[in-house]
Amino acid sequence: MGDERLREKAAPIPIEDIKGNLAHWAKVALAMFGALEEHKGIGLAGPQVGIAQRIFITNVDGDEPRVFINPSVIETSQATAKAEEGCLSIPRVWADVERPKSVKMQAWNEKGRSFTIEATGLLARVLLHEYDHLEGVLFVDRLPALKRERIVEKFAKRTKAKTENESAG
Asked: In angstroms, rounded to a whole number, what is the distance separating the alpha carbons of residues 85 and 83?
């Protein structure tokens, strides 16, 4: 949090680039899965790792690991649910976020194939959370203003203290 790249809307990847550079996108996805595993996450978007393009990955229990390139939300349910979310870009911060209970999304995979997925529960939440990253939105942006301000202040203080400790040591 605090890195302006997380607030920028990610650029679409031309379909010709996906299909013409399958080895590249497979390598990018593999590196992202490595980072996801290292940090014990269940989703990771390109902007979180310095890739300003529309790609994210998921690895949610009960589903196969997936790569989403140029995802688009086709439909979300009107029914919503609140659940606790965290983010690798905002370590050790958790808050209840309200999101649609289900989502239908279309994307391309790292093999250059288009697919559509319908998801509910945790998988739907992760898909929408990662999609938000491509739009320059963090999960804290979905919180009430007062709660968001408290989290941002707490994170800033913790980051400042960590920086001061590192420079003193």
From this structure: 6
